[in-house]
Structure formats: C-alpha cells, structure tokens
Design goal:
single chain; alpha+beta; three-stranded antiparallel sheet
C-alpha cells in the first residue's frame, strides 16, 4: 500500500496560473470581498485550457459536463480561498519573509531547478508580488491547520486502521508474462473482409467461408510460431515483435510485466498462473484472439506487516485528520458567510443543473446511435 500526501494547500495553487484581464464587474461577493469577472475567468480559463487540451473537441465546449464540472470546482475553490484569507486576518495569522522564502525554495526543488522555476513564472505571467502572496497564503494555511488539528495519532489508531484495511496491505500473487497474440476472432476477421469488399460482391455465405479459412490459416501459423518458441524460449521476444498483433506489447518483446490474475481475461489468467516459470503455454483462446504465453517469473502473495507500515499509516492518518479539520472549518465558514453571485452562471446550483442536463443530453445522443 502506498500513501500519497494529501494536498492541504492546493486551494491557492490554481492562482499561480493567473494573467491579466479587464472585466472588473462583480462575479462573486464573499462577505465584503468582491471577486471580479476578470479575476475569476482569467483563473478559470487558464486552468480549463490545461485540463481539456487533450480531449475531443465536443468535450472542450463550455456546455460540456467536463468544462462545467471544472467551473463548479473553480467557483467552490475561489470561495474557499477567500474565506480562508479572511480567516487569516481574523485570527491574525501572518507569514514572515523567511517562511515565504522557505516555501518558495521548496517549490523550486519540486520544479527541479531555479531556471525551470523562473521559466514557469515567465510562461504563466506570474509576478514576483503575486508569487509571494500565494506563498504567504500557503504558509498561513499550514499554520491554520496546525492550530485546528491538534489531535494526536496514536499507535492504537494506526493498528486499528491496519486491521480494518488489511486487504489494502496485501499484494496478490503475480506472474511476469509475455505473450504473442494472433487475431483469430471470427467477428473481427469478418469485419475486415466486409471492409475490403468495397463493391459488396461477396454473399454472407462467402464472407463466412473466407473468415473461417482465414482463422484456420492464422491458427496454423500460431502453432508453427509456438513450436519455434518451445524450441528456443530465448527467441520469444523476437517472435513477438515479428508476429504479435498486440501492438502495445509487441515492440517490448510481448512483455506485459508483472500481472495479477484479475487484471487479465480469465482464459489468459488461468493459463498463465497454472504454468511453471520458464515454460511456453499451449495455444490459449480468448475474446481477443489466440495467445502464446511465456511465464518468466512468479511472485507469491505478500502481506505487508503492521510493523513495516506503522510509520506510513500514522503519517497518512495525520494528513487525513488535517484535511478533515480544514474541510470542516471551510464548511462552517461557508454556512456563516454572505455569498452573492453577480454572474448567475457561477452559482453552483445553476452549474450543477447544467451538468445534469449535459449528461442527460449525452446519454440521449448515445442511445440514438
């Protein structure tokens, strides 16, 4: 089981993508603080463009459920950030120049170098003043968290978590396998024949006959290749590169790495996990075609002991406790705050309604196809 550090200060990280915009009319008012449309939409558009740039065009549209979901999150994060800033002032939480510099040094280390860091600032049009403000807010957030999450994580807490989540600390049995895949799927072969018959001259019976002949031809080839692999297992990688139709693994010599049984189709898993290390399987048929499987190594099921995971569990529980405390504080601040939307399209109630409409529209279009 691996633990990932919970992001306690990400509420301020999105601000780092800001540039400059012009519309100073009100987008959101949080208590007495006005967030302008310039501030909100500049933040949002930069983040949106980063998130959707590799998606299909239809999912990049403003009314797509993905863009609407990003917008909803940005609204909520904007409100949470401002409420925290107001809470810093109320509690008189400050950040010294030394603390800001230390946080900045941490960020430079994460980026890799000062040169890369400065380039990122320039590329995203981030001023020194804006950067220092963001770093100060992160320092203040950490101080705020330390003041509200005071409970101590005990050994008993860690042991209880381990016992209740023991499956998470178990690594299943795995095999390191390579395979050569032959396309003997009758339906896919029929489709290829129909596609090649551009004039539609073949009857259904002829298509069926040609497909079965092609399957028989490929199966005969698979038997020949299997025998070559049995005769010389060291040549398996080369055979995979030459014959395998699994393009994803073919260029790796058919190597699939270490796999758990439930990660592959049953026919493949049953064969691979019943083989001895160093052996070549019989021809194995699955929904993908015909496989020749070479098992290189096996790893037995492993259970990480409580003793080996104790420190990691305590750190995880500490981070979770801090995140929960921060979320609870923000929720309470939201309930007490006066929040107004100068732009009704930013009201989460309206955005969530649009998200539902977008999803239903997508489902309707899918059913018509």
């Amino acid at each position: 089981m691996k633990f990932t550090k919970l992001a306690l200060t990400l509420l301020f990280s999105s601000v780092l993508f800001c540039g400059c915009a012009k519309d100073n009319s009100m987008a959101i008012k949080i208590n007495d603080k006005v967030i302008t449309k310039a501030e909100f939409y500049d933040d949002f558009n930069k983040i949106k463009n980063l998130q959707v740039k590799h998606l299909p065009e239809n999912l990049k549209k403003d009314d797509s459920y993905i863009v609407l979901s990003l917008k909803n999150k940005q609204v909520k994060d904007t409100i949470a950030r401002e409420l925290l800033i107001q809470e810093f002032e109320k509690r008189k939480i400050t950040a010294s120049e030394e603390e800001i510099k230390a946080r900045k040094d941490e960020l430079i280390k994460q980026v890799g170098s000062l040169e890369s860091f400065n380039k990122a600032l320039k590329d995203n049009n981030i001023s020194e003043e804006r950067l220092n403000s963001d770093m100060a807010n992160e320092v203040k957030t950490t101080k705020l968290i330390n003041s509200i999450a005071k409970g101590k994580i005990t050994d008993s807490d860690a042991e209880k978590y381990y016992k209740e989540n023991k499956a998470s600390f178990t690594t299943p049995e795995k095999v390191q396998a390579s395979h050569i895949l032959f396309d003997t799927n009758l339906d896919s072969i029929k489709s290829a024949i129909v596609k090649a018959d551009k004039k539609g001259e073949l009857s259904q019976e002829e298509i069926e006959k040609k497909a079965k002949e092609e399957v028989a031809k490929v199966e005969a080839l698979a038997k020949e290749v299997r025998q070559k692999a049995v005769n010389n297992p060291k040549n398996f990688a080369q055979l995979a590169k030459e014959y395998s139709k699994d393009l994803g693994s073919a260029q790796q010599g058919g190597d699939l790495g270490y796999i758990a049984k439930e990660e592959v189709v049953p026919e493949f898993g049953n064969a691979a996990f019943s083989q001895k290390v160093g052996t070549i399987s019989q021809l194995v048929k699955s929904q993908y075609g015909t496989h020749i499987i070479y098992v290189k190594d096996k790893k037995a099921k492993q259970v990480q002991t409580y003793a080996s995971m104790k420190a990691d569990i305590k750190e995880f529980l500490k981070q979770k406790q801090e995140q929960d405390a921060l979320n609870k504080l923000i929720s309470g601040l939201k309930n007490q705050a006066k929040i107004e939307f100068g732009d009704s399209s930013l009201n989460p109630v309206n955005i969530e309604k649009q998200i539902q409409e977008s999803l239903l529209s997508g489902l309707s279009k899918a059913k018509k196809k």
